[in-house]
Amino acid sequence: MSRVRPALFLTLLMLCSSLMGCFGEEEKPDSVEPSPFDFGREITNTTWYHYDGGIDALNASAVAAANITVNLTGDNLPFWTQGTYYGIGLSTFEPTMGITSDDNLYMTSWGNGQAGATAIVQCTGLIEMANLSDYSCQDVYDPILPVANSNDPYVYVDKWTDRIMKFDMHALLGMTVEWSDNEGASWSLPTPATSYSVQDHQTISSAPYPAALHPTTWVFCINGNWEAPLCSTSFDGGNTWSPEVPGAPLGCGSGGLSAHIEGAGDGNFYRGNPGCSGDGYSIYRSTDGGFTWTEHVLPTSDSGTADTWNAEEAQVGIDDDNNVHAMWLGADNMPYYAYSLDQGDTWSDAMMIAPPTDLVGTGFPVVTAGAGGRVAFGYVGDSGNDTWNGYMTIMTDAFSEHPLMTTVQINLPGDPLDTEPACGYNRCGGLGDFLDMSVDQYGRPWFALSHNLQDIGIFATINEGPTLRGPVAALSVMPVGGPQTL
Question: Is-above-0.85 flag for pTM?
């Protein structure tokens, strides 16, 4: 028995060690780091997380091959995000929009107002709503003498005073301005806003540049069939306007069409159109209330520029820290972006911001911004077979070495906005010549466009996702909209 016991003990020891690690610590499997994209629920098929160039952020091999050092910390965090839209109940054409501090959204509706005038549609209860029944939209343009319907309707809300400006262009012969300081309850008498040139493709904005008779200075620019846009200034809130002056350096030859003008908190004004050299796009800046403009060339050498009807426009947005964000379409008909931290004097490298999906091309670019470095882009895109959808791309840390981009398709598959061939490359239904965007006080981006197949104006947004103002966090959840709101 004395010989059996040691042999039995050794056998048990070997068996126990091999199977259970009885006399030592059990081997642990390699730990797996949790993914920042593990949201506890499935990512929708209309949401993409990606980097510059359409690199899928969920594809580790693609990210490594692109030599991207992932740093999803700080403000560069992913959030579960979903896009949707809400109908305004009326058609729209070249929809412009604005948001007041009373949480009302405004959009133009061509020809649907009193006596056939342009309606100013006010949507109340839409921002931060809990149920779809919480919001309603109505025309609030009801003056004693309504201005006749115009070719290009335009509405703008002053971000500093909440003044709602209605800007009408009449058959290329003249423009009138009216305003409301009480959410559309009453309107000023119309005042003429032009002096001597013909007009088309107007745009208007404001900024806290020193003005004698109003808290903000107003500037509008038009296509006056001249070598550059023509711009005019009002220092009394829109009652009187200066003679029109060139919106680019003399001899520039940039062409008359201009993208949306944007006013900055430091009093500067910015707008984009082709560069003086004829190659690429530039942002033009005024530091004196729109009287003189300097050119600031965008980094388009790698992207090229689009060869479509609306190729002349580079859009610009200004964040709360006065940083400048520019967007344009490249030669591949994809959206590109660059930013400037010094009022447009220098620019970041260009980034291609379309998502990692099979987009044939894009059109109707527009950009807006919230807090410093937080930016949102809107555009339409063809997902194949002339299926035109609406897209919104968001960055919560555009100044990161590798900013994470979150793109949502605002309409569900099977609910396209248009199926017309080349819709994004031509004037198309209610989209007209341009679209518009803004960010509300809670940091939710809003995108004004048209559901062309239903001929209804829509406000698109993210019903869930990150805020573009305040600490980077999740927005309150809003109900999904879509076709039921049309």
Answer: yes
